[in-house]
Design goal:
Frm2/Hbn1, 5-stranded antiparallel beta sheet, alpha+beta, Nitroreductase family protein, Nitroreductase
Length: 198
């Protein structure tokens, strides 16, 4: 149990990422698949989807983000945006996480009593899968950080990688070698977050 908790404690947002990774792309792909497959989902819906981008595809994603943000960002702020995106582009790869919406709709129709809950449960399932992949990557020695450029990039991403219409983009997990420190994490006081009753 302590090994699992240590893995959770060790996971951090690493923004200085590179490509000096010992694992092969195949090993990283299998690690990501295993983490997603073994993440729980309500009603065993298995609604999380993942698209793994390496090399040119990874760089293309961050070119898409930069192009999408340019008209939305004040000119004086855009150099900072470009620098941030360049940091993501320097990483080894990105996992795009999606929610598969047809399954959610089917469950809403099948179990009307819980219909309002299924979209929330699907988001929770996606969050669990994302956190599990992030923790697994960290345990394998890779750093990562989570981004949310959806829905600004949704259409361009769908077009570039032929994403099905029923896959809704939820987040982008950038990963690579750890080229800097993550910094200390600050925690709220326990009495602000937890209650125990007996």
């Amino acid at each position: 149990m302590s090994q699992f908790l240590d893995s959770l404690k060790d996971r951090r947002s690493f923004y200085a990422l590179g490509r000096d990774v010992k694992l092969s792309e195949e090993e990283i792909t299998e690690l990501i698949k295993d983490a997603v497959k073994n993440s729980p989902t309500a009603f065993n819906a298995q609604s999380p989807r993942a698209v793994i981008l390496f090399n040119d595809a990874h760089e293309k994603l961050w070119n898409i983000v930069e192009e999408a943000l340019k008209p939305l960002t004040p000119a004086e702020a855009f150099p900072n945006t470009q620098a941030k995106i360049a940091g993501f582009r320097n990483a080894l790869g990105t996992v795009l996480f999606f929610k598969e919406t047809d399954t959610v709709k089917h469950l809403q129709e099948q179990f009307a009593l819980y219909a309002d809950n299924f979209p929330d449960w699907a988001e929770q399932s996606n969050g669990i899968a994302t956190a599990n992949v992030w923790t697994a990557l960290n345990a394998a020695g890779l750093g990562a950080n989570l981004q949310h450029y959806n829905p600004v990039i949704d259409d361009a991403v769908a077009k570039e990688w032929d994403i099905p219409a029923n896959w809704q983009l939820r987040s982008q997990l950038v990963f690579g070698s750890k080229e800097g420190d993550a910094g200390e994490k600050e925690y709220l006081a326990d009495d602000e977050r937890f209650r125990v009753y007996r």
